[in-house]
Amino acid sequence: MFFASDNGGPVHPQIMQAIAAANDGHVLSYGNDPLTQQAVEMIRELFEAPEAVVRLVATGTAANALILSTMAQPWQTIFCTPLAHIHADECNAPELFTGGAKLTLTGTDGAKMTPDTLGQAITRIGWRGINAPQPGAVSLTQVTEMGTLYTLDELKALSAIARAHDLPVHLDGARFANACAALGCTAAEMTWKAGIDAVSFGGTKNGCMAVEAAVFFDPAVAREFDLRRKRGAHLFSKHRYLAAQMQGYLQDGLWLDLARMANERAAQLATGLRAAGVDFVCEPQANMIFARLPRSEHQRLMSGGGVYYTEDGDPWHGPDDEMLMGRFVCDWSVTEDDVDRFLQLVTG
Amino acid sequence: MFFASDNGGPVHPQIMQAIAAANDGHVLSYGNDPLTQQAVEMIRELFEAPEAVVRLVATGTAANALILSTMAQPWQTIFCTPLAHIHADECNAPELFTGGAKLTLTGTDGAKMTPDTLGQAITRIGWRGINAPQPGAVSLTQVTEMGTLYTLDELKALSAIARAHDLPVHLDGARFANACAALGCTAAEMTWKAGIDAVSFGGTKNGCMAVEAAVFFDPAVAREFDLRRKRGAHLFSKHRYLAAQMQGYLQDGLWLDLARMANERAAQLATGLRAAGVDFVCEPQANMIFARLPRSEHQRLMSGGGVYYTEDGDPWHGPDDEMLMGRFVCDWSVTEDDVDRFLQLVTG
Amino acid sequence: MFFASDNGGPVHPQIMQAIAAANDGHVLSYGNDPLTQQAVEMIRELFEAPEAVVRLVATGTAANALILSTMAQPWQTIFCTPLAHIHADECNAPELFTGGAKLTLTGTDGAKMTPDTLGQAITRIGWRGINAPQPGAVSLTQVTEMGTLYTLDELKALSAIARAHDLPVHLDGARFANACAALGCTAAEMTWKAGIDAVSFGGTKNGCMAVEAAVFFDPAVAREFDLRRKRGAHLFSKHRYLAAQMQGYLQDGLWLDLARMANERAAQLATGLRAAGVDFVCEPQANMIFARLPRSEHQRLMSGGGVYYTEDGDPWHGPDDEMLMGRFVCDWSVTEDDVDRFLQLVTG
Amino acid sequence: MFFASDNGGPVHPQIMQAIAAANDGHVLSYGNDPLTQQAVEMIRELFEAPEAVVRLVATGTAANALILSTMAQPWQTIFCTPLAHIHADECNAPELFTGGAKLTLTGTDGAKMTPDTLGQAITRIGWRGINAPQPGAVSLTQVTEMGTLYTLDELKALSAIARAHDLPVHLDGARFANACAALGCTAAEMTWKAGIDAVSFGGTKNGCMAVEAAVFFDPAVAREFDLRRKRGAHLFSKHRYLAAQMQGYLQDGLWLDLARMANERAAQLATGLRAAGVDFVCEPQANMIFARLPRSEHQRLMSGGGVYYTEDGDPWHGPDDEMLMGRFVCDWSVTEDDVDRFLQLVTG
User: Fold this and answer.
1) B226 touches chain C (CB under 8 A)
2) What residues of chain C, 75 to 94, have a C-beta less than 8 Å from chain B?
3) Residues A59 and A80 occupy one common structural domain
4) Does B100 touch chain D (CB under 8 A)?
5) Cys-Cys with A345: which of A132, A281, A304, C42 at CB 3.0–4.6 Å?
6) Is there a single domain that holds both residue D311 and residue D212?
7) Do D226 and A131 touch (CB under 8 A)?
8) CB-based contact D27 B8, cutoff 8 Å
9) End of a domain among C225, C253, C281?
């Protein structure tokens, strides 16, 4: 009954097999191996973007911060929500890799921004002239940090606002697959067809060991990214093992199957909680649920074997001290039975 | 009728004379001259802090950013208001000098924070652990960017909150003198006696040419600050001309006289505007007034020779598009007659 | 016949098995899992340092740059040789992670420095005062980038010079195991017993997939390192897979066995080359050989299936344009037969 | 008898008068005043470059570091000599402002580089690929830090090498006027006509109080420089006082007259020292002399009232411990009589 995070589960066997299969003989290092080229082509195909720049790194924070560093100058600011992973959970990594750019927070409900809140935030900065931080880039997260989703139309509307101000748009896709599965759309539809310039295409949370792809739809950035990745100490020497993970992940649509499994388990959990009268902070849409429960109830569930986080701090805080928000995340390896047993505990 | 800023006016004659008097013969550079030592002692005396580290720089942004860089690590965050100069008007200078620290915004009314909003902001960050930016320092501005003042009790209450979380407190005193004059308190009372650890003691806006003092009440920081100042390209070779300004500024209490003059002109202006039915955004307390007037009225006043800024953007925005906030700042050189003529224009 | 690098070979089966064994069930992420604690204890035991701070990252550059960032302030300089990996092969990663510290180059023969050259370099900087970069740290590489070794006495003499100037000493141990195997010493003897303050303990080049340990003998740095690692995007979420590699690597002395195998293959190659009259740039001491051969001979060997790098540039340059330096590196997986076949090609 | 530095003397009266004349009434701040526009035009005229971007700052280190930050990316390296001010005397300011670029040292004799040493240094870096720091820019100093000069042909030859590698060239002109006076050339001839892309045009060492101009011959950089200057805390609010200095400095060719005076005093001193049998480290060419004298002789001269620096460290070191290098610098205010009295002391 582990719902603490989708990075707590095992690597999927198909991906382990791909790693094992790659473990043969000598190849050139730093990505100059055939497997890497193959993985890059698979990602280009997935995104229907034959010219895309695709680079692999091992952590989502690396993908986010390195992409943002190619988009925002040190004297600029990046627009994101107060709950954005890049703001709240990366210990100033974007600031390090951009050389000191600022993050401007806008939008709150369900960790989403709207065209209005984004437009106002950009405009507000705009008039202060040379003394102010300058607008630099927009960063969206899909699935959001509150488990909600932007529709394709919402993504298009937000990127249109960004484009109107000449700002590039980054998509933090740590749970990209879960969003595609939930929306029933393609990777292309959720990115360049919706005006996204670059995406952190996550693998780690969805059954990989440690791999994320930075995908740029503008090929001009390739050389700069390569140098930034190396300088950030994020260029793997034995690069084939990153590539093998991606290969196993994309083979036969595994990436989407795993996301569907995770989403289904979260839906099962949400249905059960709702039936038990539990209140949600936002309507669950993918593989992550935020639910309010009395403090004592959390204690009972955890004593009974439920593993998940509760939070006292804002914005996790319920309406009073006694109601705490619990975060429940499912990865592909959570079983129907795990959820059933937890729900019995809830209703028990 | 110049109210655009208190950095638009001339240098006071007593300060010009001090510069001229310093312009004689050869002395060692980089602050190893007798005049610098003298200026340092005058500032220590002013602050009743014989052990204080006192360093001169030429811009307020340099004083702020360099002080903050000794207080906050690159993985930490500095608590300030959304209108803080360090956030809104320094083009990411604190981020540059700290190596990428973040600024966390809290409190809004009149550009002030309260113990409650500060305490909540610190606590909120606190529970996120290693993945989050860490609490680093608190930065207050006195006179605030909205022309309001913290009382000594308010300063003490805020610094107590900071201290309870082991955070040092910086005071941006670009208008330090105006605050002392308005509160009728000493420099010591407004700083270390109120729990402030370091202050940017401004000279430029109050009749100097280009000089600010960074004053630390903990002497341990001296060597680090010296290296940071040099590395920031803020160590003057012909240092005596910074020292001379400070000497002229402090001689016979000139600094306080000039601030009183500026405050009085602003009070005269506020009284006249209020009599004319003009609405203030906050109650004016020092030498800066934010007043709401119809857009057309601003146009009339400017055509008539009033020089000041109006702003469309939030938070300068009035309740509707037609009411714009105007910012009126007085320096020591604005005359009673200047204000009278402007008020005639208003009532005219 | 692959001698291009020791990062081109496969992961050793024992390490692959450790990874596979770790792939079971849910555990807490970010290093809060039992396997990580176990790997840390194994490393502490190896170094006979029960209080050491041990942290895992995935690249050698990350280990080096993050360790150095805890040792050198942005206004300081790090003493290393002109061939040091941190200077020549990390694309300014140390500069990024330290926030702009400088690297001062000293010593050249065989990529080693001597107490004299180090002492002079430190002293030379020292007298310039506040305007100059300040001495910050010393970084040594063992095995050096030219395949040579410091004796334990040499390490002690260098760290004594550093200590006399209050400088901490970092050891880049990307090939740490090869050095221990060649010197027949313990990990403790080559580090804290020789005056080393922190070491990048390499795994990747010696049969792991992607893991290096940053080991600090002073426990005080733990919290700072954790925050720097996270901010550098080098904290793995599925941390158990780093830990498993280390576990498999250290189990039953595998780390030393693999290094011995690599060293023996290099010795076999050196013996054969010497017999064929080939000249070495430095006397080979571990698993890396730099040999001068005519340009045409290199072409013949490569056409015949030898895979390795030659270099035109200084310091790889031979005495004339026609003699080029070739770099031959053996990892554990190079076979006796590989070397034999290559030597037949040479003498062919 | 002050020869310690050319930043130890007074401001020239014509420049003081220009400052005093500027001290009248209110003007807009941050450079939006008529005097600044006028100073900019005077500098453009001086450089025969009507489109040049001209920005004023208060320190030479600021001019150097800010210019270089527009030329070199954080993953690049800047080629300069080991004695370059940007390397040896700016406490890592270039590293701070570039975000961590490296400095690659080349050339030593008389603090000059040659086309050969520069070309080799660039080529050497070039072949290491993505793992190495990338070539970024070239920085020359004129007058050099050893008081020597590049001829116009030497400047052209160096900039040709840079251009062949697509590298921009910066000229550190802290003593620009002394070089123009010594070479009898125009400002244009020594900069864009010789292939220089941007110059730090010094005022402070040559009779100003604190002003340097950053001059770019490519206008495209203007916006970026403005943001970098503000972010570096180097944008003066009361900007007219920087402009006034430049105006006074350039008026009626004062800048060149002051440099000629300084050069003549140094020549007088060199002639006298030579006659007294003193040995020079390099042939004096402008206003700075490096002479070797026995340690005891230095002590005698200093006791007699001579003020200047001697150095023990390399490269100031003489052939043995007893011969120390003394640095003698003349500014415009050193008198013929000062030099005579000092020479009497020498021969005395």
Assistant:
1) yes
2) 75
3) yes
4) no
5) A304
6) no
7) no
8) yes
9) C253
Domain-embedded: residue A168: yes
Domain boundary, last residue among B236, B253, B270: B253
Question: Per the confidence metrics, is the pTM higher than 0.90?
Answer: yes
Q: Are residues D323 and D259 in the same domain?
A: yes
The model's confidence at residue D59, banded by pLDDT at 50, 70 and 90, is very high
Please indicate, yes or no, if residue D2 is contained in any of the structural domains: no
% pLDDT > 90, chain B: 91
Nearest to A131 among B90, B96, B103 (CB): B90
Q: Does C190 lie at the interface with B, CB-CB under 8 angstroms?
A: no
Task: Check residue A251 and give its pLDDT.
Answer: 98
Subunit partners of chain B (3 or more CB pairs within 8 A) = A, C, D
Instruction: List the CATH number of the domain containing B314.
Output: 3.90.1150.10
Question: Residue B275: what pLDDT?
Answer: 97
pLDDT band at D316 (very low <50, low <70, confident <90, very high): very low
Q: Closest to D75 (Cβ–Cβ): which among A73, A131, A231?
A: A231
Q: Which chains touch D (3 or more CB pairs under 8 A)?
A: A, B, C
- Whether B104 and B50 map to the same domain: the answer is yes
Does D177 share its domain with D241?
yes
Chain C interface, mutation test: which of B98, B226, B227, most C Cβ atoms within 10 Å? B227
Identify which of D41, D26, D32 has the alpha carbon closest to the alpha carbon of residue D246: D41
Q: Looking at the complex, does the CB of residue B302 fall below 8 Å from at least one CB of chain D?
A: no
CA distance D36 to chain C (A): 30
- Whether D8 is in a domain gets the answer no
- Please report the ipTM that was assigned to this predicted complex: 0.96
Q: In angstroms, rounded to a whole number, what is the distance separating the alpha carbons of residues C165 and C161?
A: 7
pLDDT average, residue stretch D52-67:
98
Average pLDDT of every residue of chain D: 95
Report the residue from D89, D131, D314 with minimal CB separation from C89.
D131
Read off the pLDDT of each residue in B70-84 and give the average, rounded to a whole number: 97
d(CA B154, CA B190): 10
Q: Which member of A102, A311, A314 has the closest CB to residue B92?
A: A102
| Contact status of C174 with chain D (Cβ, < 8 Å) | no
pLDDT beneath 70, residues of chain C: 109, 127, 312-321
Does A128 reside within a domain?
Answer: yes
Answer whether A6 touches B (CB < 8 Å): no
pLDDT for C192: 98
CB of A132 within 8 Å of any CB in chain B?
A: yes
pLDDT digits (tens, 9 = 90+) for A161-193: 999 999 999 999 999 999 999 999 999 999 999
* D170 in Cβ contact with D199 (< 8 Å): yes
Is A214's pLDDT higher than 90? yes
- D271 and D220 in a common domain: no
- What CATH number corresponds to the domain at position C214? 3.40.640.10
Q: What is the mean pLDDT of residues B126-138?
A: 88
Same domain, D241 and D167: yes
What tens digit of pLDDT does each residue of D141-186 get? Answer: 999 999 999 999 999 999 999 999 999 999 999 999 999 999 999 9
CB-nearest partner of C233 from A8, A23, A59: A59
B237 to chain C, any CB pair closer than 8 A? The answer is no
Q: What is the pLDDT of residue B127?
A: 66
A198-202 and A169-173 strand pairing:
parallel
Contacts of C95 in chain B (CB under 8 A): none
| Parent domain of B109 | 13-253
On the question of pLDDT at B176 being above 90, the answer is: yes
Kindly state whether residues D236 and D302 are assigned to the same domain: no
Query: Is the Cβ of A237 closer than 8 Å to some Cβ of chain D?
Result: no
Q: What is the pLDDT of residue D320?
A: 54
Asked if the C-beta of D96 comes within 8 angstroms of chain C's C-beta atoms, the answer is yes
The number of distinct structural domains making up chain A is: 2
